[in-house]
Amino acid sequence: xxxxxxxxxxxxxxxxxxxxxxxxxxxxxxxxxxxxxxxxxxxxxxxxxxxxxxxxxxxxxxxxxxxxxxxxxxxxxxxxxxxxxxxxxxxxxxxxxxxxxxxxxxxxxxxxxxxxxxxxxxxxxxxxxxxxxxxxxxxxxxxxxxxxxxxxxxxxxxxxxxxxxxxxxxxxxxxxxxxxxxxxxxxxxxxxxxxxxxxxxxxxxxxxxxxxxxxxxxxxxxxxxxxxxxxxxxxxxxxxxxxxxxxxxxxxxxxxxxxxxxxxxxxxxxxxxxxxxxxxxxxxxxxxxxxxxxxxxxxxxxxxxxxxxxxxxxxxxxxxxxxxxxxxxxxxxxxxxxxxxxxxxxxxxxxxxxxxxxxxxxxxxxxxxxxxxxxxxxxxxxxxxxxxxxxxxxxxxxxxxxxxxxxxxxxxxxxxxxxxxxxxxxxxxxxxxxxxxxxxxxxxxxxxxxxxxxxxxxxxxxxxxxxxxxxxxxxxxxxxxxxxxxxxxxxxxxxxxxxxxxxxxxxxxxxxxxxxxxxxxxxxxxxxxxxxxxxxxxxxxxxxxxxxxxxxxxxxxxxxxxxxxxxxxxxxxxxxxxxxxxxxxxxxxxx
Length: 591
Fold this sequence. Notes:
The protein is of the alpha+beta class and 591 residues long. The chain is built from 20 helices and 26 strands. Among the domains are: 92 residues, no CATH class; 220 residues, Transferase(Phosphotransferase), domain 1 (Orthogonal Bundle), CATH 1.10.510.40.
């Protein structure tokens, strides 16, 4: 049956969807023995089974179905907690609370922190529902802000706490969150030049020239001149939340003696992108501005550490050199320009101090070529079920999802595997990658956020590429310079395949068409084989890539809950670690 004649899936229940996503994470990471201690009943005619897990004085019970992506099970209905005399249906917060009670050594502060984040997400579900209809009526391939909003709808797929915005109350989420699509004005400050550091190729005294139109620039200049700051200070934009909640407490001495001055000027209007701390300009489609925003998402403080900014320059240099080595890459992949940044500088020039990460900005220029450009993540979002709106907008109302998925996979896997064969891998999850469409087909990939381009130095050197001189804060936690190629490939497997492409495959499979997860996996396997057959890389490298991706029954899996529960202090790096899980591209007996 063709995709155009199959009725779409019914609208999703958002609370059940959240609970199912949490169930998936608990199962695969086996938190509190969620998988290993559970009892499963015999399969019914439809393949579902009873699930039971003893927890305290009762049992967690649910109906589960086979996981179509990898070996295992997923939630197929509501979860309940039963005792001898009671039976209560569980939402995501209650489910998480019962499971955390099965971790007797978990510190109470971490338990409270984790439950508070999940509760906050559940409390905001109804508010988010109110934004959906407006969002879906505004889908326009030529409006990049709409697609950023849609990409933010799931945030990072398969991270059950990804939607939490710790530090923003409901009013601020509405004002500054991407999903609601509100425009807001930037705040500005003036920073003494002897406290300002910038990128080597920033190319201008400050960001105002690139951000403001002539009239706005004149108004800002008039205030700087009127207050006697024009010669001694540089104007910097600030996220208004950061200006109100962080600057007064963390930069009191500088505000007191005039080295930092809060300005009256406001503007221009901006809107949050899917990354929250990065904003887009409605009148300037190819321009983004990345700002520190000291709220917590994914267990991370969203700051702009100067070492990450400098690492972004090195990562971009490596990407550019690598793309030039491969004709397919040079033809199919483009890079956002993120070479201009400014930040506060301590007297001693310490790039690893905290305050420089709290005040600064990065300009990002997205290559423009006349094609519709959308975040990869937006193709995995269908708030009302059916074919994802992004897929309909760029490929027609009844796209052939198998063909579309194959073309997307060709670009994504072509990029990440050809790069890996040269010795590096960009962080290619759905937010960091943009797809450009022409005539209903993806024509090239655009990469942004270059500060986590990982590499295997041995393979880089053999390929004639230079090992980036990254600034590494903690050698023991370093994930940028990896000693073994299989460790490098793990980031291709976890981010490109098991996050970005899996999310799209699942959205397409849920659309009510003939596309299935099994078909998606087979497309990925065929694409891997095709990319490796055409890549101009040493045969032993291609063999290792094929072995890691296709021939092993288990593959790296990016755990997020377990490390979050082990993190007593949250920093600017997302708590995560690589575990092992069933390999979705190992067909084995399924082939």
